[in-house]
Write a structure and sequence with these properties.
Length: 208
């Protein structure tokens, strides 16, 4: 069985879905926080996260880019949607929309003060489109607490991890970010959180 090192900052941010997938799959892994920016030159493309996998034979596989890491881990453990090319495209679309929403947090934090009101306004507009679109998709899947079918897939895990990031790092960067995802405003999104969080395989991740 492979072992993994996930190299990232000690934050609930871009690598959070990677952590959730590793935990959900009960993979043997450890977090590694590099010294930054000194260790920047030691990364494959000068940024984080980076996944380092060592298999039973000692072969090492390094992979960068958070979405590439997620897709690899989900594929390796059978969590990608098993359907048509359209289903796969929809899965990617929904995941990228989660990334787009979360990215308003660091964008708001790491910009100049005078630009922040505009970023917050754009977030508040875009998140309404996001919730409407995802609620409709979940309704069309039967309002059963899953994005696809009747079992947990990559997108379900990604939603739980991203909302956890929004509740933590997101609110630190953009105050009130999580207020848009209450059960009253996003009931079917919250049903996914409820169903996925009840799975015993998520317990290890949620305990951290």
């Amino acid at each position: 069985m492979s072992t993994y090192v996930l190299r990232y900052f000690p934050l609930k941010a871009r690598a959070e879905t990677c952590r959730a997938l590793l935990s959900y799959n009960d993979s043997e892994y450890s977090d590694e926080a590099p010294v930054w920016p000194q260790d920047k030159v030691n990364q494959p493309v000068g940024q984080l996260p980076v996944l380092i996998e060592t298999d039973e034979s000692g072969n090492v596989f390094e992979l960068s880019e958070s979405l590439a890491i997620e897709h690899y881990l989900a594929a390796k453990h059978g969590l990608l949607v098993n359907g048509t090319p359209q289903d796969s495209a929809r899965q990617d679309e929904l995941r990228h929309q989660l990334v787009d929403i979360f990215n308003y947090a660091p964008r708001h934090r790491f910009t100049v003060e005078e630009a922040r009101p505009s970023i917050k306004e754009r977030f508040e507009t875009q998140v309404q489109f996001f919730i409407k679109y995802h609620e409709n998709h979940l309704k069309n899947n039967g309002s059963n607490g899953h994005y696809f079918g009747n079992e947990i897939t990559y997108m379900d895990v990604a939603l739980v991890a991203t909302l956890r990031s929004i509740n933590d790092f997101g609110n630190q960067c953009l105050s009130g970010m999580s207020d848009f995802f209450t059960p009253e405003k996003a009931p079917l999104i919250n049903k996914v959180v409820e169903v996925v969080s009840a799975d015993p395989k998520m317990a290890k991740y949620l305990s951290k």
